Amino acid sequence: MKIFLITAITCLIASSAAVHAGSNACAQPDVIGVQVLGSGGPIADDGRASSGNLIWRDGKSIMLIDAGGGVFLRFGEAKAKIEDLDLIAITHFHTDHSADLPALMKSGFFTDRTRNLPISGPSGNRFFPGINDFLNAMFGKDTGAYRYLSGFLHLSRPLDGEAGSFSLQPVEVDTRKETATQVFSDGDVRVSAVGVPHGPVPSVGYVIEIGTYKIVFSADQTTLDTRLAKIAQDADLLVANLAISQETTDAVAKRLHATPSQIADFATAIKAKKLVLSHLMARSIEPLDESLKIIGKHYSGKVVVAEDLMCIPM
Ligand SMILES: [Zn+2]
Fold it and tell me: In this structure, which residues have their CB less than 5 angstroms from ion ligand 1?
């Protein structure tokens, strides 16, 4: 088992390097795939960008899920295009999931995009903003930190060069709601979101259906809530965040994140065909062999360890 896992990891690192060389398996015609932009977390100790993932379809980068630090750079390295995005889906407002969003939007200003860009995210509480408050804090025309980009929220104003060239359309997901919220629908693509337990941080998990495929981003969470599992059944792919080891004694981290066995039990409960482990940092990379062994005991599907720019075709 161990030899298989090490071989698998070696192959995956090799495929990631191939992307650096310029061939992106996800960006090919007739391919639907998930590309990991950032496989890291909030600690800058691992050479990985913070959280970010792209969905590719037929050579187009149609969705961005999270935009943590470093995702700006990886987005360009992947040759993704802001013009092609149909949706940006933010899971929560920790920096490692959202800090590069303003920079990416400014990059979009230099494209010929004019169509609206839906952007979904959680509702807020007294500790964190919801998606509407976050966007206002960034781009609000009077008090926003980047108010020079206020055109992204106020396109009714005439364009004045620095204002923004397309309009963000926020979709706020009430994280306390029992049932899922559909945040996007177009043709055979449907995206649903529901609250997930991430300590005091309002967070959402996403279920993305494209044609016959079902892709689940479980986001940072403990898995101690059944709402996402209800809508994530029979997933073709589950991207889960392995941020802690089984033996962690850090009470705060345990309140925020699932252990390896909890992730594996969740993957089994939703009958996921494949599990991608992401959000890795030194503290979860160092015990990775042990975590993979535990996951192997609780989940019998294929396990992939994420690397930045790795493509996982459907
Ligand atoms: Zn988080």
Answer: 94, 220
